[in-house]
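Researcher: Next sequence.
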Amino acid sequence: MSQEIEAFRAEVRTFCEQELPAELRHKVFYNLKLGKADYLSYLQVLHRKGWSAGHWPAAQGGCDWTPLQRFVFEEETASAGAPWLIPFGINFVGPILYTFGSAQQKERFLPRIRSSEDWWAQGYSEPGAGSDLAGLATRAERDGDSYVVTGQKLWTTYAHFADWMFCLVRTSQEDRPQKGISFLLIDMKSPGVTVRPILTMDHCHDVNEVFLDRVRVPLENLVGEEGGGWTYAKVLLSGERVLVSEVGRSTRQLRRLEHLAQNTLKGGQPLADNAAFARRLAELKLRLFVLRATCHQTVADAMAGVEPGAEASLMKLRGSELQQDIAEAMVDALGLAGIVYDARDLAGMGQDPGFGPFEAPGILKDHLHGRAATIYGGSNEIQRNIMAKLALGL
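Model: Next structure:
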């Protein structure tokens, strides 16, 4: 790494040490339940620093970070205990708007995305269209100066927090399925929008189903050209799959696993001294090292003007599998304490779970929630198909 990058890394670490609220860091380290206010407190700290959209162009209110600076920022903040930087506004719809949106859309939405005044959800997946988005059925029909949108979106993360949803809709049934898809911005307060919670395996409410019953959306909320949504979605999804490698988060979780192994006794000896578990821990460390190196290479290629192809799918696949395997090792380290779980123990600080170490509820929550990591962002089965096509020509 250059001296400039190492200086930036040091700046990010200092920022986390001095500006990241201690209560928030505690919740993240122990996987306690985070609410909208928790995420907002972090976003406001970033906004005051001028880093809420650091990777955006300076002309759009960003810092013109290079891909390597962005990687370092996300790695260091996650490793230090910052919460997930909810990506739907900053990372997803913001870049689509400043790249493909109208001048009016940029002026209206971008400042409020940077300041977190508007929260966004991603309306992609449907009951019949998950990783295969070309199969989506939500339709938008023109009626005067509006589209009338009818359909259902599924697994919509934090839709219950959102003010707006960027949504893929079908505006045409003609030609190839991909050519009939458009990109709309939908006000979540519009009549006809209904959000229903879905409780996941960890008994927490993070995802939802969203019903759209003849929702009227002004024509001015179409991004780019009608029928261009597939192109915009591919740009967005490529970035998403790089992000979900989550090297910083895995680094943080691996440190916690090491600490747990050193402080858990098996047969009177620390679990870390057990030969089989020590080998398991070493393999996880090696996989993280290789993933981080692959991310660095991909970032270097991006800085040289090479768009991520199969590498984006590779990082998503390896990153999500690593997250799951670290979480599984932590549950195994808990032993008998790993069979008891009550989501109510995640609500506050310093609560006694009643059985096992304090961190047991959070470890189990992370393990249960993380079963979805190999599905969201495009399932790993789909990622293998993409790699076979792009890298092997199959």
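Model: The radius of gyration is 22 Å. The longest helix spans residues 275-303.
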